[in-house]
Specification:
mainly alpha, 11 helices, 0% strand
């Protein structure tokens, strides 16, 4: 194991311990699970043309959105906040530097995302008769779609976090397109109910394929008739998510290195001074 990987895993373990002690952060992830369960409890219709409960389709789609959100909303916000605090500047003197930092963030996000997904599926199965994989093949599909989905969004989230402005603007810039994808990727209702041009745009992005892959693992095979192609298209799921994984890694490391090179003590001091003048920090 290289020094970068070792340093990254050590750093990731420290950040996980800090997260577990942060009640505000933990409550945010729990709130998402509660919201999904409440919505599922009040949905009683079936998916059109099938005998699959609409609540099951929504829970499968929301499970994909949770993974997507943690990678493309939570992670960029985290990176922007740490950049403002001088984390990237300190990386110049940190063993492993940018690779170790990226490994640590990947480890943190993967553990949080998988834990949240497991909690959602377990709570849904117990409380609202939610869907679970029906056999070894479905469990295997759940595993590889979750893994590949996280690999597709975590490096991309890191790349976005490297170029976003200050934390006050970061959320606004990433929330609107992310929420747009939530409603156009077939995560809350069948994608076939959307206009074909909207389906085609959604198919470019990973959320649509993450949701489709999770539906294939969690819903009965008869539910595939509600998909745009009339099938789960698992090879295409794997292909698109792999393409986004490669793109994310190609972007993340150079953009983080560029952001670190641009950092300096004078830039950090200027940001802190501006924040103090604006009331965001104590003067």
């Amino acid at each position: 194991m290289t020094n970068g990987w070792r340093a990254g895993l050590q750093r990731g373990g420290i950040e996980l311990r800090h997260l577990l002690r942060n009640g505000k952060e933990m409550s945010g992830h729990l709130t998402n699970v509660v919201v999904a369960l409440l919505v599922a409890a009040y949905i009683s219709d079936d998916v059109p043309g099938t005998r699959t409960p609409m609540s099951h389709l929504m829970l499968a789609g929301f499970a994909a959105y949770l993974l997507f959100q943690i990678g493309l909303i939570n992670l960029p916000q985290m990176l922007v906040a740490e950049r403002e605090e001088g984390a990237l500047l300190r990386l110049r003197a940190t063993p492993g530097g940018i690779p170790a930092y990226l490994v640590a963030k990947c480890m943190l996000v993967v553990v949080v995302a998988v834990s949240t997904l497991a909690l959602l599926l377990a709570a849904a199965a117990l409380l609202v008769d939610g869907p679970l994989p029906h056999g070894p093949g479905d469990w295997l599909t759940l595993l590889w779609v979750t893994t590949l989905g996280l690999l597709a969004v975590v490096p991309l989230g890191a790349a976005i976090g490297a170029v976003l402005p200050n934390p006050r603007e970061a959320l606004a810039l990433i929330m609107l397109p992310t929420m747009g994808l939530l409603f156009t990727s077939g995560t809350v209702f069948p994608i076939t109910s959307l206009p074909v041009p909207v389906q085609q745009v959604a198919a470019v992005f990973p959320l649509k394929w993450m949701a489709q892959g999770l539906r294939s693992a969690l819903l009965p095979d008869t539910a595939r008739t509600a998909e745009a192609a009339g099938s789960w298209e698992l090879p295409m799921v794997a292909l698109v998510l792999t393409a986004w994984t490669v793109l994310g890694f190609l972007l993340a490391v150079p953009l983080l290195r560029r952001a670190a090179r641009r950092e300096s003590g004078s830039r950090l001091s200027a940001r802190h001074r501006k924040a103090a003048e604006g009331g965001a920090l104590p003067a």
